[in-house]
Each structure stands twice: as structure tokens, then as C-alpha cells.
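Whiteboard transcription, Tuesday session. T.W. wrote the C-alpha cells on the left side:
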């Protein structure tokens, strides 16, 4: 599966490599990579980007880069048909490039590795003019977090001199995401020992059963505590010979981002399985694209401190969605590998740590990702989502004159919290006795929900509370809550998320976030999420904050930091309704009107934008009307493109018939099982949903509404 057809070699000679610099007419990606890009809505953008950065030769910068490395990785399909990765190491300069189409490597895989058998075989050494061994490469400089990749084929192999030559077929650079900084040095004495081993039977590859990972503590710990590994895949596509061959890639995360587990097969057999998250990346999908065609994969784990390498190979499956994916912070999808073979070499890697690894060397992207301990705890919390849990107030921050942010963390340090989506809210409850000193023995609670005002972290929650005039709970929080106090909260909930415009988000259509006052709390995390994605793909987003004046603007620094991630694509505007002297930093003054909206949206077509808005009912109603009916300003936005959330009570802004699809026009009897209350409900009446009926009944039956817990109704029958 790793032999390249003659069609790859072209029609005329240039050096010892591929004969043309031109990318094939079909583009730089094979059909399986294209399928995933299409599935995730980035196909067009990736095609344009790929044609700019993917080349069929080594640039001068890449030639210098590979030459200065004391190590780099190769990937190829072994004699058993599995893609495998190997870490080659020697003195700096062991890789040279006599011309842009050739790479000469003066090193071979470690004796005992799966690929060592491949390079030792006579079939590999018998290079003919028509079919070449496909080899992928990854040059990675850990201390600078630089990396470049290539794919090519073997043109020469000198087993005595421990060298081989490659003809380059495809090259491109990679971003530094998720790479941990490490300072390594080549160890000459270990390399000499390996050369002697190659000449003996001890240098033969020793393959273990998958259960080895469960029995051997060193192997088990290497996987479950790793912060990096390398994965080799192959796509032997004879229909498209340009892409025939292997790929080797880097994966990084927090220690514990790879899970080792056992699963039961359909026949009842116990299988060893590895699971890891696939984070936001460059959207090329080289690894996942290969797995779509050929599920075989080989993983390489490296313990640099002990110079140990662990090879694990088997059959991989991509999990596109599910509870596990949602629970793991930063995961876009998961990859599961059923292990079919293992090879562990202790002390043979001729690389040592020039400086011991410490916390400062972790990649800056890791705080936005999780680990399996956090994910599994989040899954447990999700199962108990109707239960209240105790949190302590870790920090209090004044965001504006009337807005206070409350940071809540579990009472047990490092305990994860249930994950949430940007835009969701946190239900909390406060004992009535804290609000009313004369009710010291009251067992009742006051219930509130507050939007989570931060991008998910997995280890804390932040709610931002506006002091409302006459507001019972908000006034108490502003006046009495202190750091170290405790609050009780349930798992986050709510449907006001970017999922409402999932297709637009995937395809990069403009997103406009309209916030009035504390309505910024659910919209700021959405902006932060869009900013994080903008680092990896084109993204257009506009954030608009409507406030009375400069003093009442919340999250000013966080909005600016988010927009700075992609200043040409992420923009923010301030609109002051009642500016005072010295308020010179606003973009517009007065009420938000159709003219201002038209200027903000330009140069985009309003019909192509998706609007998310949150704020007081009057603001929502006026803005909704402007967006959907301001024809003179070109703001006739489709109603399906307008998404909003009320704080507290509110009515549907759309008006007209309810579109719930309920056919009946006759009154329906509704029976509430716990309270034995019965009422009649007509969907076309004042209450559009059963939830509204439930809330109104609760309010009508109680003189102190704050003392009643408003739980989501569960449909018992009907």
C-alpha cells in the first residue's frame, strides 16, 4: 500500500524528484480530505489556502530548517501493512537537500522498531524505476515549536552507511499549536550502541500483544500521562497517484489527554482501546482523511526523560459527536484506536533532555483544552444535572458600575465542573434565610439563573450579575457576597448558543452580536469562541455593545482581546445612548437605529448575516423590528437569521401564528402530576408553550414567587 505508481514521477527529470512544481488540477487534497472539509463547511477556504501553501518542492527555508535539526520523524507502511512512525536522530546536519526536490537522510529507524524491519528488507532495497516506497516526514523543532511536513518516495537506500534519499512529492508548513517546548540533545554513545545492535539478532523488532499495555506499568503510564504523541496514517489511493502514500503528524494536549481503556467487541472479546480528542487545527484533515479510506494507524509515544519509545498500532475510528466529545474541553471530535500490536524500546532513543521539562514549557493553547479526568467528571456531573452542587466564591470583579462578576469554583481543588456552551446560563439557589434575617430557620430557597459570561474552561464558572433596582437576589449579591462564601448551582443549561446558526458558523457567514447592558453576558463567550476559531479559519464577526455611557460598558478589555485575535475579521462597536462629557471612545451615540445598524453591517449583505441579540425587552423588540422591516436601509433580515434571548419574562418577537407544528385548535387538558393541578391549554392562546403554562400557574399559586423552585416540566404522558 505504500508503493507509488509511475504516474507520480512525471515525464521529465528535474533533480531526483517530482518533475513539475504545479499542484494537480484536482487541488492539493485527496478526495477523503475533501469529504471531511465539505462535511465541516471549510472546503472552499481550504482549497484556496492549500493552493497557496502546499508545494511540490522544498523551499530554501525548509531546506535550511531540515539541515539544522538533530531529529525528525518519518512515516511509512511496515511489512505487516500498518502505518508506523519513527523518530530519527543524529548530529545536526544529518539531513541535507542537494536540490529543492531531494532530501538525503543519514540515519535509519532504531533497531527493534517496526520500520527497522522495513528498511532491512531486501524488497525495500530493491528500488526500481516504476514503483517507489512512499515515506512521509515531519520536521519539528520542539524548542521553537516550528514544524514542516513533506511526502515523497525512496530513491536510494544505503544500509551499510545508514542513509537513504527521498524524492519530494509534497511539502507544507504547519502552525505551532499544541506543541510543548522541549530542549533535546543528541547522545552519540547511545547512537553507537544502536549501530552495533543492528548487526545482531537483538536488534530485531519485538512485537507485543495488546494486553502488554495493561500489564506493563511503564507503558501504561507513558500513554495516560503523555502530553504529545505522533500518528502515522496511509491512503493508498491508486485512482489518484499524487496522493498515494503516508502521513505522519503531531498531536499534543494536557497530560492525560489520551485514554487507555478496555472495551468489549460484538463477539464478547475484550479489546484494548486508546481514545484521544481532535482539537481545532489547520482544517487540512490529512490524518482523518487518510483514516476515512484506510483505518489502520500507528502511534508513537516518546518518554524523552528515559529515552523510551512506545509504538502502538491498530484500527482507528473517528467519533464525530456524542456525550464524550461534548464533555472534553476543546474536542471537536474523538479518535478511537483498537490496539492490535505494541512495540516498546527502553533506553534506545539517542536523544536526551538538555533541560528538564517543566510547566512553563506547555503550549499556550492548552488552557482551552481538557483531559480525561475532567471529561469523565463532567460526564458524571451531566448525569446529575438536576442536582445542586456547592461552589465557593473564588473571585469577585467589578465589570461596570452596576455589574459584578462572580467566579465560582468547586470546593475540592482541581475538580472539574460540567461543561457548558457559550451562551448558556447557570441555575443557582440561595437559602431564604440569607436574604431574610427574620427567617433563620426557613428551609426554602430563592432560585435564579444567570448567563455564564466566559468561554468554557472546565474548572470554574463565571456569572456576571447586574444590580437591578428592587432586585432581591442581585442586590444581595452586590452588597453581601464575599470571596470564600459558598453558592449552590446546577449544571449549565439553555439553548441560546451558536448552534442556532451552526451552518453559518461552519461556513464562515458573518455573525453579528448585539448586546445591550448586561445582555453582553451570553454574547461575550460567543465572541470569544468565534475569536478562537478565527485563529484557524476565516471568520467574520461583529460585536456591538449598547450602553448608557463609558462607565456602564462591561468587559471592555475582554472584547478588545477577542477582536485582536483577527483584527481584520473581528470588529467591535460601542453605542452610547446617554453619553456624558469625556465619552469620546464611542462609535455611535443615541439609540440604536436602522441607520447605525446599516453602517455596522456594511459591507456585508444583511441577508447573509446571522444576528444574536440579548438585552432588555424594549431593546429586543425595537431591534427585531429594525432588522426585519427597515427596508429603506436594506435591513430586511430573514427571521430565521435573528436569534434572541430575554432576561426574565418576555414574549415572542415574531408575532403571528405559532410555528410549533401542533395541529390542534381545541383546548387540551393539562394535568400536573406532582401538584394534581389541571388546566386547559390552547396553543393559539396567550401561552405558546407548556412551560409558559407551568410558570404562570406557579406564579398564580404563590404569594412569594422567589420561594418556589421552577423546574423544567417532564412530559409524563401524551
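and on the right, the sequence the group agreed on:
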Amino acid at each position: 500500500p505504500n508503493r507509488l505508481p509511475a504516474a507520480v514521477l512525471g515525464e521529465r527529470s528535474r533533480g531526483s524528484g517530482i518533475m513539475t512544481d504545479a499542484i494537480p488540477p484536482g487541488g492539493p487534497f485527496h478526495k477523503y480530505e475533501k469529504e471531511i472539509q465539505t462535511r465541516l463547511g471549510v472546503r472552499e477556504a481550504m482549497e484556496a489556502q492549500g493552493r497557496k501553501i502546499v508545494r511540490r518542492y522544498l523551499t530554501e527555508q525548509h531546506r535550511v530548517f531540515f539541515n539544522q535539526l538533530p531529529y525528525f520523524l518519518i512515516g511509512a507502511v511496515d511489512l505487516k501493512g500498518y502505518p508506523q512512525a519513527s523518530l530519527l536522530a543524529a548530529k545536526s546536519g544529518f539531513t541535507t537537500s542537494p536540490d529543492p526536490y531531494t532530501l538525503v537522510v543519514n540515519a535509519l529507524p532504531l533497531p527493534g522498531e517496526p520500520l527497522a524491519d522495513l528498511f532491512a528488507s531486501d524488497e525495500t532495497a530493491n528500488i526500481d524505476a516504476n514503483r517507489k516506497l512512499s515515506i512521509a516526514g515531519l520536521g519539528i523543532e520542539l524548542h521553537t515549536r516550528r514544524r514542516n511536513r513533506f511526502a515523497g518516495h525512496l530513491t536510494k537506500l544505503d544500509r551499510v552507511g545508514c542513509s537513504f534519499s527521498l524524492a519530494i512529492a509534497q511539502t507544507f508548513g504547519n502552525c505551532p499549536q499544541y506543541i510543548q517546548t522541549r530542549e533535546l540533545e543528541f547522545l552519540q554513545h547511545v547512537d553507537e550502541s544502536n549501530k552495533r545492535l543492528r548487526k545482531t539478532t537483538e536488534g530485531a523488532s519485538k512485537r507485543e500483544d495488546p494486553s502488554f499495555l495493561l500489564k506493563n506499568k511503564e507503558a501504561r503510564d507513558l500513554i495516560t500521562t503523555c502530553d504529545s504523541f505522533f500518528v502515522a496514517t496511509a491512503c493508498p489511493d491508486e485512482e489518484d497517484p499524487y496522493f498515494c502514500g503516508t502521513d505522519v503528524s503531531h498531536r499534543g494536549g494536557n497530560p492525560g489527554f489520551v485514554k487507555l481503556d478496555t472495551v468489549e467487541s460484538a463477539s464478547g472479546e475484550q479489546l484494548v482501546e486508546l481514545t484521544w480528542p481532535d482539537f481545532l487545527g489547520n482544517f487540512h484533515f490529512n490524518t482523518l482523511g487518510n483514516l476515512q479510506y484506510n483505518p489502520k494507524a500507528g502511534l508513537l509515544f516518546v518518554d524523552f526523560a528515559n529515552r523510551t519509545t512506545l509504538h502502538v498500532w491498530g484500527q482507528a475510528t473517528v467519533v464525530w459527536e456524542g456525550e464524550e466529545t461534548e464533555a472534553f474541553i476543546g474536542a471537536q471530535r474523538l479518535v478511537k484506536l483498537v490496539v492490535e500490536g505494541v512495540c516498546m524500546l527502553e533506553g534506545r532513543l539517542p536523544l536526551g533532555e538538555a533541560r528538564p521539562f517543566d510547566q512553563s514549557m506547555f503550549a499556550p493553547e492548552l488552557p482551552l483544552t481538557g483531559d480525561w479526568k475532567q471529561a469523565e467528571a463532567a460526564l458524571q456531573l451531566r448525569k446529575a444535572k438536576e442536582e445542586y452542587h456547592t461552589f465557593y466564591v473564588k473571585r469577585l470583579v467589578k465589570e461596570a458600575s452596576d455589574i459584578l462578576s462572580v467566579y465560582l469554583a468547586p470546593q475540592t481543588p482541581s475538580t472539574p465542573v460540567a461543561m457548558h456552551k457559550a451562551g448558556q446560563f447557570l441555575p443557582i439557589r440561595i437559602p431564604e434565610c440569607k436574604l431574610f434575617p427574620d427567617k433563620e430557620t426557613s428551609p426554602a430557597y430563592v432560585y435564579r439563573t444567570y448567563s455564564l459570561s466566559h468561554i468554557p474552561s472546565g474548572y470554574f464558572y463565571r456569572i456576571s450579575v447586574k444590580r437591578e433596582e428592587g432586585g432581591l437576589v442581585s442586590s444581595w449579591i452586590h452588597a453581601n457576597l464575599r470571596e470564600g462564601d459558598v453558592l449552590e448551582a446546577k449544571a449549565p443549561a439553555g439553548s441560546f448558543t451558536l448552534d442556532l446558526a451552526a451552518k453559518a458558523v461552519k461556513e464562515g457567514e458573518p455573525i453579528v452580536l448585539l448586546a445591550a447592558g448586561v445582555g453582553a453576558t451570553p454574547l461575550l463567550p460567543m465572541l470569544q469562541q468565534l475569536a478562537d476559531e478565527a485563529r484557524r479559519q476565516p471568520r467574520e464577526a461583529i460585536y456591538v455593545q449598547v450602553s448608557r455611557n463609558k462607565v456602564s460598558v462591561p468587559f471592555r478589555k475582554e472584547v478588545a482581546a477577542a477582536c485582536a485575535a483577527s483584527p481584520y475579521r473581528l470588529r467591535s462597536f460601542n453605542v452610547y445612548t446617554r453619553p456624558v462629557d469625556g465619552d469620546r471612545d464611542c462609535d455611535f451615540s443615541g439609540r440604536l437605529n436602522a441607520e447605525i445598524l446599516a453602517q455596522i453591517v456594511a459591507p456585508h449583505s444583511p441577508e447573509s448575516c446571522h444576528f444574536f441579540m440579548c438585552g432588555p425587552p424594549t431593546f429586543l423588540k425595537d431591534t427585531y423590528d429594525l432588522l426585519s422591516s427597515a427596508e429603506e436601509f436594506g435591513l430586511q433580515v430573514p427571521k430565521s437569521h435573528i436569534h434572541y434571548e430575554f432576561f426574565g419574562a418576555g414574549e415572542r418577537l415574531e408575532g403571528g401564528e405559532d410555528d410549533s407544528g401542533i395541529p390542534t385548535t381545541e383546548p387540551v387538558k393539562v394535568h400536573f402530576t406532582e401538584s394534581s393541578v389541571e388546566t386547559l391549554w390552547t396553543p393559539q392562546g396567550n401561552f405558546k408553550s407548556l412551560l409558559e403554562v407551568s410558570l404562570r400557574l406557579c406564579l398564580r399559586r404563590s404569594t412569594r414567587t422567589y420561594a418556589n423552585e421552577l423546574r423544567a416540566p417532564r412530559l409524563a404522558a401524551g
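Someone added at the bottom: The mean pLDDT is 83.
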